[in-house]
Design goal:
The protein is an alpha+beta fold and 241 residues long. Helix content is 41%, strand content 19%. α1 crosses α5 and α2 crosses α5. It is elongated.
């Protein structure tokens, strides 16, 4: 978790360093949620990029492990109910992306990984009996937030491991929010109703940079881009040391 007040104070300190304008709590909260989602979504892109890079796999193992560790915060396990009828299930409300599925009531007592297929592959499998799903080779396809399991002659008991949306576990307010009052242009933080970022603690500097960049776009202030760029370069230099 990253403390929302720490990030807000850093953003204000950098933005006001040269009297570049004041970022209100309302503006900050909008930028904060956008910044968190930008960083979160970048994890998936970066993992795919590292896996596609040519060369020794061990060279890319450490960055992938780091990214996977950051995503583990958001991993949830859900066992789909066996209602003796449906092979189609609606995913939980906080679902963002599927990690993997397992068939856990297989007759031989072993869990079976369920292969994801496209709608085109689904049609091909339905036409050819040789390609259709079996108990040993179960498959699934998705449509919106619904998932359909394909097996043969057994009722599926399915364990779904998925990545949830950040901050969705907070039912009263599933968003990052700095809460408090402004007294003499000085923010007075109220931790009670505030909601922290749910990203890994190592992402604090990235959040500050992203929020400054978004603020620069909104305020049409190129100087904020420069401040964000300077912070970004400093972080890169520190990572290389």
């Amino acid at each position: 978790m990253v403390n929302v007040d720490t990030v807000y104070q850093r953003v204000l300190a950098l933005a006001n360093k040269e009297q570049r304008g004041y970022i209100t709590p309302q503006e900050f909260n909008l930028f904060a949620n956008q910044a968190q989602m930008d960083i979160f979504e970048q994890y998936f892109y970066d993992i795919n990029q590292f896996r596609r890079l040519p060369g020794n796999d061990s060279t890319h193992a450490d960055p992938i492990d780091i990214l996977e560790e950051k995503l583990n915060i958001f991993k949830e396990t859900w066992t789909a109910p066996n209602n003796n009828l449906a092979y189609t299930y609606s995913l939980p409300e906080d679902y963002y992306r599927i990690d993997h599925l397992q068939l856990i009531n297989h007759p031989d007592g072993q869990n079976r990984e369920i292969e994801k297929i496209s709608h085109k592959e689904k049609l091909s499998k339905s036409i050819s009996p040789l390609l259709s799903a079996t108990n040993e080779r179960p498959s699934y396809f998705m449509k919106g937030n619904e998932i359909t399991i394909q097996t043969k002659n057994i009722l599926p008991r399915v364990k779904i491991v998925y990545i949830r949306t950040p901050n969705f576990g907070n039912n009263t307010n599933p968003k990052v929010e700095w809460n408090g009052t402004i007294i003499n242009n000085t923010p007075q933080y109220n931790s009670g109703p505030s909601v922290d970022f749910e990203l890994h603690v190592s992402e604090e500097s990235k959040l500050v940079i992203k929020i400054l960049t978004l603020a620069g776009i909104t305020l049409k202030d190129p100087a904020l881009y420069q401040i964000a760029g300077a912070e970004d370069n400093k972080n890169i230099q520190q990572e290389k040391q």
